[in-house]
Amino acid sequence: MLANFRRLGATLVGAAALALSTTALAQKDIVIGLQCDRTGPTQTVGVFLCPGYHDYIALVNSKGGVGGAKIKAVEIDHEYKVPSAVESYERHKKEGAVLIGLYGTPQTLALTQRLTEDKIAGTSPGFGAAAAANGDRYPYIFPIAASYWSQAAGAVQFAKDKLGGSLKGKKIAYLFYDNPAGKEPLPVLEALAKDEGFEMRTFAVPPPGVEMGAQALDIAQRFKPDFVIAHLFGRSPSVSIKELKRVGYPLSKVVSFVWGASEADITAAGGWATAEGYYGIQFAGVGSDYPVLKEITEMYKKQGKPAPKEMSSTVFYNRGVLIAAVHVEAIRNAVKAKGGTNITPHDVKLGFEKIKGFTLGGLVPPLEINAVDHEGGGWVQVFQAKGGKWVKATEWFKAYPTLLKKMLASGA
Amino acid sequence: MFHRESGYYKTTYAADMALYPLPVARWTVAAIALAMCIAPFVLHEYYISIINLIFVATVGALGLNILVGYTGQISIGHAAFMSVGAYTAANLAVRLDLPFWVTLPAGGIMAAAIGAVVGIPSLRIKGLYLAIATLAGQLIIEWTINHVPWISGGVQASIEVPRPTFFGTQLKTQFQLYWFLLFFAVLAIVGTLNLVRSRIGRAFIAIRDQDIAAEIIGINIFRYKLLAFAISSFYAGVTGVLYTYYLGIANYEQFTLVTSIDYLAMIIIGGLGSILGSIFGAIFVTLLPIAIRLGMASWGADLFGDTDINNLIPNLRLIVFGGLIIVFLVLEPEGLNRLWRNIRSYFRIWPFSY
Predict the structure, then answer these.
(1) How many domains does chain B have?
(2) Which residues in chain B have their CB less than 8 angstroms from residue A54's CB?
(3) Which has more pLDDT, A138 or B7?
(4) Of the candidates A1, A94, A113, which has its C-beta nearest B247's C-beta?
(5) Is B36 in the A-facing interface, judged by CB distances under 8 Å?
(6) Which residues touch A153 (CB under 8 Å, ≥6 apart)?
(7) Do domains A27-146+285-378 and A148-282+398-409 have the same CATH topology?
(8) What share of chain B has pLDDT > 90, as a percent?
(9) pLDDT, tens digit (0-9, with 9 covering 90-100), for B210-229
(10) Residue ranges of the alpha helices (H) in chain B?
């Protein structure tokens, strides 16, 4: 027993020493707080997205940082848990973060009020409520990428273009994951169904979403829609591809939201040959054909290292680059406005609201963020699985902006 | 070691029934209370926020321990009762503009009512079968909240709640919320301490140890099993309300099955059927990942490259966390509480152990 206590004592002393040796921050760095999930339920995203983020920050630093100051992105993995996200936010605040990169819808919702009270801007690309695009109502939340509402509008617009310019009398199936995020686009789809005169039917997939044989059969053989809009998460997008293929529904009439359109989904569905023709909506450019990615490869080459293997998952990696790039652009605007690098979170918030005409060679859509529109316009681009990679199917576009603006203003 | 336990004679019934009969125990409690009162004034906001999370987790863990540890009924639907409390309070606070001292008990009572219903299968089934029945409760409650907009407040299934107000002051900062949460955590601890030594608590323990024997000696199993579910769910409901006020939003996606399992982990690591164990468990499960990450962040940079470290920390943290749970449970299967008691009894007669 005594030996046990001695060992325990040694462990405790070790732990105390650890806590003390936490390194002090260099004074001049501009700190960004980045929340990640590399180990939780959405880890398939995090393991590619977060390295993309860090690589872009490293690239900016290798070019001398912003206004002479280096940027330091402090990453904390919260395992997609809300208490951990609260703790990691407070830690970022303690380290002096000028902005927070949020990750996950429940986490974004849980921190919204705290961010507003502390007046620190948080970005939630692809997460949180669509209503957060309204900067009047949520002054410190910045979706910076197309919300589910914008994606729904984009999907309908895309279907309309594919079906010859009119949706009158057409049938559209909405296949969705039965959780709040999955149901969020419903008001937009219903409003569009009325305006455009198409018939919409919804097909809910209960969590965990790995079983949808019945829904696929229903879609392909009973409803026989002209187009399918899919909004699924995790393992379920790959299942939807497989099942729709099995029942003989053409994948070139399926368009998926942003979380069902990655390389990993195609691999899990059985490879590119199976998924040939499948469309996916994106809020960041896909593929490796962008100058910024070449610069990152160059940077690694200069250090004598091969390009990171995470780059192969271009969908998530590029999203990480996009988030980092928008963050850095906001900081750059803040530094420019302030005339120095001792910026406050409030300066960065104003910096976000000045982002305009910044495209990073096409990887970032032509965002236009201002005090009212924190989404930046709701730009999307559609890519198609074709010949072993994602091929651009449209340019950047925003769909039904007037309808969305009206819905946002009415504060659904 | 420094105090005697003999020589204190109890001359009144009140003295005999005191929670802490020994002066040394009373002084310890007083010292801890004083430390808790000084802590928020000296600690950085970050550490206060961690303590706040521990307070909320403590209330939830105590509730689950009443059911699992004291009454012996396994439940993996604890998080669902939290969401019942959270949404009840959120709806009352937003629609009727009620203050927290109404919504908080209301959330607890609603959760208790639902909990008693979910507990009905416990009258017939035990052990793993009961666990699956409560799992059904968890899934049904989740589904209901997701699909009934009247409860969930719309498709996003989240209701924004204003911060609690106390005599005209809105409790916003971590410092202010510390006192709010401390009050309810202490209330929960004192309440549980008294509950388990009351007639009800003894009936719970009798049911846990041997329910047939308990029935034979005259304990109404029907009543007490449902009561255990109701009380446990009341605590869970209050936990949910506390989370709602702490975060400013009610959202059921944070009260999933994984959360239920986290709370089970807390009480198993802390010690089943012990109050101190629930507190230890809440502290351990909340603090350990943070401590491991801090350690990794300060040591790891010397061992690994910058780009690798971000990937290593979270994964190593899970491995170390899992490993430590095994180590602690192998060291002492009855949990941290037992470990603490072993340490205490070792020093009780130190240095004259033999």
Answers:
(1) 1
(2) 307, 310
(3) A138
(4) A113
(5) no
(6) A188, A192, A378, A398, A399, A400, A403, A404
(7) yes
(8) 58
(9) 989 999 999 999 999 999 99
(10) 13-16, 23-42, 45-65, 78-95, 100-118, 127-147, 149-152, 174-196, 199-209, 211-216, 221-247, 257-270, 275-303, 306-331, 336-348
**Residue B131: exposed, middle, or buried by beta-carbon count in 10 A (0-12, 13-18, 19+)?**
middle
Test A112 with B318 for CB contact under 8 angstroms.
no
Q: What is the residue extent of each domain of chain A?
A: 27-146+285-378, 148-282+398-409
Rounded to the nearest angstrom, the minimum Cα separation between B162 and chain A is 9
Q: What is the pLDDT of residue B73?
A: 92
Tell me the C-alpha distance between A341 and A27, whole Å: 11
For the stretch A149-159, pLDDT in tens is 999 999 999 99
Interface check for A76 against chain B (CB to CB < 8 A): the answer is yes
Q: What is the CA radius of gyration of chain B?
A: 22
B171 CB neighbours in chain A (<8 A) are none
* Model confidence at A69: pLDDT above 50: yes
Q: With 0-12 CB in 10 A as exposed, 13-18 as middle and 19+ as buried, what is B272?
A: buried
Mean pLDDT of A350-366: 89
Token match 């993996």: residue?
Answer: B76
Domain range for B77 is 43-256
Given a cut of 80, whether residue A377 has pLDDT beyond it is: yes
Residue B206 inside a domain? The answer is yes
Contact flag A15-B297 (C-beta cutoff 8 Å)? no
Within-domain flag for B274:
no
Closest CA–CA distance from residue B17 to any residue of chain A (Å): 33
CATH T-level topology, domain A148-282+398-409: Rossmann fold (3.40.50)
CB contact under 8 A, A51 and B45: no
Domain-embedded: residue B147 = yes
- Domain A27-146+285-378 in CATH 3.40.50.1970: no
A187 vs B: CB within 8 A: yes
Average pLDDT, integer, range A82-91: 92
pLDDT in tens, A163-200: 988 899 999 999 999 988 898 899 999 999 999 999 99
Confidence of residue B305 (pLDDT cuts 50, 70, 90): low
Domain assignment present for residue B37? The answer is: no
Give tens-digit pLDDT for A18-62.
444 443 344 478 999 999 999 888 888 889 999 999 999 999 999
Strands B158-160, A389-392: pairing is: unpaired
